[in-house]
Amino acid sequence: MDKRFQAKPLDIRESKITGTFWHGFMEKARTQVIPYQWKALNDLIPDAEPSRALRNFKIAAGLEQGEFYGFVFQDSDVAKWLEAVAYSLINHPDAELEKTADETIDLIVSAQQPDGYLNTFFIIKGLDKRFKNLRDDHELYCLGHFLEAAAAYKKATGKGKLLNAMVKYVDLVDSLFGTEEGKQRGYPGHQEIELALVKLYGETGDEKHLRLAKYFIDERGSQPFYFNGEHPGGTTNHRYHQSHAPVREQTSATGHSVRALYMYAGMADVARETGDKTLYDACRTLWEDVTRRQMYVTGGVGQTHHGEAFTYGYDLPNDTAYAETCASIALVFFAQRMFNIDPRGEYADVMERALYNGTISGMSADGEAFFYVNPLEAVPESCEKDWGRKQVKIQRQKWFGCSCCPPNLARMLTSLGNYAYSKRGDTLYVNIYAGGTVDADLTSGPLGLDIDTDYPHEGSVRIKIRQADKKAVLALRLPGWCDGFSLKRNGKTFHGDEADGYIFISDLSAGDHIEWEMDMPVTVIQANKKVRENTGKVAVMRGPVVYCLEETDNGKNLNHLSLPFNARFTANFDRSFFGGAVRLQSDGRRLSAEDTDALYKKAIPVSYEDATLHWVPYYLWANRGAGEMACWVYS
Out of 60, 275, 472, 530, which could bridge 111 as a Cys pair, Cβ 3.0 to 4.6 Å? Predict the structure, then answer.
């Protein structure tokens, strides 16, 4: 746990993403998603679920009369939107957007109570009830999101009004919770404040903030169970809240998936800052359970809608998959923090898988509709008529009563530079291949790069070294999916040092040209035979992108289609397909038509007809109307 061997994300200002793929998403977030979500928060989207989150602040501040509306955590939608705005302002200064954010912050702070407390539900409903039900009432969760927003906004604008208000709120929380005599030994029902307090510590340098984060991690799951004391005579599903055992004794991911992954991210943060190897070892155990036994091929996590939760190893149903957008985003957070402690390609591989599939599938191509649930198979009639699949939608929604996912996705997209690059000492790690520029401040001095790539549409990455010290090292991730590559330096074949999933290139000089070419054939994927739902089935990937079949291209009854072994694929870039995407075609087979309407009949040899299968990136499904979709097909 020596800090000398740890990495940290590049500051957003140290890189500029201009490559087609991710720049397109970041621009969409700036020009469409953030303005659209501002309208949603102000209830200006026709025929959409109301938010009234901003109106709650006006009522809490005494500017309007009315009742609280929404979920107890409604405030957090505003916080995540503000955080997205902050990152957007770093990438693209916008005086009007900053003015809107400043006015929103003024409104938020105007509702703050004299002792620092700030939560509209209890300000409106009754302050006598505050901190009485940590299990269910999300006060610390909302505070965590505002801490993240405040730190980001201070970084973006230099303005500390929101940060100062949140520090005052944290001081109140610190005075109430802890192991000292007279304090409550509580912890949040929905984790988030743990990782947020570590971010706050990074901004303030105040050890009190790190100690409080550590307290919430260490206290969780200790006996007597705190939630039992809050709810005497009631029942608490401690596994749902990850409070069934001290975190260092937890060996499998269980309960609400977003809560769990936020907690794991917070555990990793605290382990990194304190050098706590026992906590890191627990993170590693939980990481292996999530990614090796409970993660979908898309990077989706959380298998069931009952509690939005993990279930058990190798239980990965496709048509009832929950795979909440927020959960994939939380997996990205956890992966990044594990990489920070121990820079290894396996963490960046999972981060990439989730980014290209399980997260951006949660947003429509126009940025104005969203999925909460991301299934790997969908049949319209089943989703409409089967209560066991009601959570699955075949078209994205304008907004949700519980709208945690849309602003979460917005803040992830606008902060993408934090995930694309990391640095450790004299080494710059390229984790996500996104064209643009890098001006990183390494221990040895500045390193300047120009990166040109059309990844993931192709596997070619061209890097020009603009500025470098001889001690600087460039680490290029060798993705786990990549079986073949070539590397040239100034036109000549070059062999860097390969370790931990990266190719390390040293002795850099200004003017050097690096050509990194990764083979990107179509790969047919098989699940572990313990995954019952995928027995006899395969999925299709090209590079980091998972593909699916849609009814629009392949007709109804996708379950009648199969992919022969060694089928031939062709890949074609279609610039007109939602801003540009690689589409695939392959040989295929379709079950021959039935010769009878009988529900059951004597078995006969199965017959097939030749068919051409048309595949589209999973993240783009459901952009062309309602219809069937399938990621896994029979082989």
Answer: 60
Q: Are 476 and 505 in contact (CB under 8 A)?
A: yes
Which residue in 435, 438, 415 sits closest to 427, CA to CA? 438
In angstroms, how far is CA 126 from the centroid of its own chain? 34
What is the C-alpha separation between 404 and 78, in angstroms, rounded?
Answer: 10
Spell out the SS3 assignment of 303-364: CECCCCEECCCCCCCCCCCCCCHHHHHHHHHHHHHHHHHCCCHHHHHHHHHHHHHHHHHHEC
Rounded CA separation 151/148 (Å)? 5
* Residue 8 phi, psi (nearest 5): -145, 150
Written as one letter, the residue type at 504 is: F
Residue 559: HSE in the Cβ half-sphere, 13 Å Cα cutoff: 7
AA letter at 534: N
Question: HEC string of 406-435?
Answer: HHHHHHHHHCCHHHHEEEECCEEEECCCCC
Instruction: Tell me what pLDDT residue 318 has.
Output: 96
Of 176, 49, 165, 72, the residue nearest 125 (C-alpha)? 72
Cα–Cα distance, 190 to 592 (Å, whole number):
51
Give the burial string for 149-164 (b: 16+ CB within 10 Å, else e).
bbbbbbbbbebebbbe
Over residues 123-161, the pLDDT tens digits come to 999 999 999 999 999 999 999 999 999 999 999 999 999
CA distance 615 to 522: 11
At residue 103's C-alpha, the angle toward residues 101 and 105, to 5°, is 70
Distance CA 503, CA 478 (A): 7
| Active centre residues (catalytic) | 308, 404
At 1, the pLDDT band (50, 70, 90 cuts) reads: low
DSSP string, 24-68: HHHHHIIIIIHHHHHHHHTT-STTS----HHHHHHHHTTSS----
Distance between CA atoms of residues 45 and 335, nearest Å: 35
What pLDDT score does 201 carry?
97
CA dihedral 586, 591, 593, 598 (to 10 degrees): -160
Contact 494, 487 (CB under 8 A): yes
Measured in whole angstroms, the distance separating CA 19 from the mean position of its chain's CA atoms is: 20
494/516 Cα distance (integer angstroms): 10
- At CA 208, angle to CA 206 and CA 212, rounded to 5? 135
Q: Is the peptide bond before 406 cis (omega within 30 degrees of 0)?
A: no
